[in-house]
User: What shape does this take?
Amino acid sequence: EPVSVKKLRAGDCSWDTMKLVLGWIIDTSTLTIRLPPHRVDRLAEVLDSIPRAQRRTSLKKWHAVLGELRSMAIALPGARNIFSQMQNALATKQGGRIALHKGVHDALDDFRWMHQHIASRPTRIAELVPLPPVAEGHHDASGEIGRSHV
Assistant: This one.
């Protein structure tokens, strides 16, 4: 049989517009991707582990924080471009410690803001993978399609 009846009875292979796939909630009706609730909670834990007043942290902890934030950045709109200050902190390491300067805390505050608004703004799949154009033909800057201005 091409389809496993056992898997169908267990709920696998069912058609749905919203699915948990590889740790992401993908909604094909709205074409969005977002973090599942347990990863949203984990994001809060990671951000709470480094308060604004903290000035240094261990290299090991900083690598863990960066890794977790990078793994979640796909589903956080705007997160891709705020890692530079956080990555630069690695250049300031002395021994096994990292200095957490104002730019690093500003970037972490941006992540805190994203966490507060994560439910109201899922990431559009088109932001991650450009979709094919919906209109073909010539058009001018105003968006009018198929007209030639002579």
Observations:
- The chain has six helices and six strands.
